[in-house]
């Protein structure tokens, strides 16, 4: 992030969440079970490009555009240039991604430029840097409401096409944003390796209503080689992850059929191109070419 943010947790204890070293955090959980480390672990990939893993991002410029969702009154910095733009994207990071939020957004921006999509990307930064995965997951609803508030304000004052891109728990934040929106402020949503239950986008799931009423086209890019979601999320949530095999509305031995997904929702299998949980938005090793195709 551009500057550190102090936050207060549910017990009233203030914690400096933005400048905790990601490598230190990952090292701290190295001895924990895959259930705790799964979605934040930096994994190695066999990609020939070498630009892979959750610690490897391009360095964003010092004054990169950013929406601060860590306070109850979301604010944005370095966004004056957006007033002249017809279109821009908002990137939402996942668990343990607060420290590298702007770097991740800038990496996506460069990957988009490689595909001739030259609209700017804004980083949306939320309170995700905690060793407790379940605490981070619990904060996605608040982050989504705050992002919806900011987007609604922008939509009221600017006539720009807005696209959301969310990675891992950031995809969950995007889905919470659609639930909270009271207008059609967003054109499309790209979910990248999203950490949410695979039936949560079905008719009886938490997010179906928001998808159906937001007016946004929602694309879920999922990979069977994303071990963090395919295995880590399963252990942590006792449910299959949306970012692994896409939506599953068929129910199980213990649950009824969950209906169908909204017509605005599309699953996109990118297993052939994405080998690592943090590769979706990166040049060469990710699925950005397909994301840009779906922007059209």
From TrEMBL:
Pfam families on file: DUF900
Positions of the UniProt region annotated as Disordered: 1-21
UniProt biased composition (Basic and acidic residues): 1-10
Any coiled-coil regions, as ranges: none
Name by which UniProt lists this protein: Alpha/beta hydrolase family protein
Organism: Natronobacterium texcoconense
């Amino acid at each position: 992030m551009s500057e550190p943010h102090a936050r207060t947790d549910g017990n009233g204890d203030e914690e400096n969440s933005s400048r905790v070293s990601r490598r230190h955090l990952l090292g701290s959980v190295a001895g924990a079970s895959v259930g705790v480390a799964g979605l934040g672990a930096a994994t190695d990939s066999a990609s020939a490009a070498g630009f892979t893993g959750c610690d490897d991002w391009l360095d964003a410029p010092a004054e990169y555009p950013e929406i601060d969702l860590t306070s109850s009154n979301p604010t944005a910095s370095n966004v004056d240039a957006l007033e002249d733009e017809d279109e821009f994207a908002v990137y939402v990071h996942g668990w343990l991604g607060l420290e590298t939020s702007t770097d991740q957004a800038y990496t996506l921006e460069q990957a988009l430029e490689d595909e001739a999509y030259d609209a700017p990307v804004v980083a949306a930064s939320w309170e995700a840097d905690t060793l407790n995965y379940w605490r981070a997951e619990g904060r996605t609803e608040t982050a989504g409401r705050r992002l919806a508030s900011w987007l609604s304000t922008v939509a009221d004052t600017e006539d720009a096409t807005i696209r959301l891109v969310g990675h891992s728990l950031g995809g969950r934040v995007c889905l919470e944003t659609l639930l909270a929106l009271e207008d059609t402020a967003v054109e499309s949503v790209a979910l990248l390796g999203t950490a949410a239950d695979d039936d949560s986008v079905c008719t009886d799931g938490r997010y179906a209503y928001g998808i159906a009423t937001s007016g946004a086209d929602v694309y879920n890019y999922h990979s069977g080689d994303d071990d963090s979601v395919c295995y880590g999320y399963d252990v942590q949530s006792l449910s299959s992850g949306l970012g692994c095999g896409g939506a599953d509305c068929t129910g199980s031995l213990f649950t009824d059929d969950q209906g169908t997904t909204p017509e605005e929702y599309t699953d996109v299998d990118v297993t052939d191109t994405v080998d690592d949980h943090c590769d979706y938005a990166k040049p060469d090793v990710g699925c950005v070419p397909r994301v840009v195709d779906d922007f059209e």
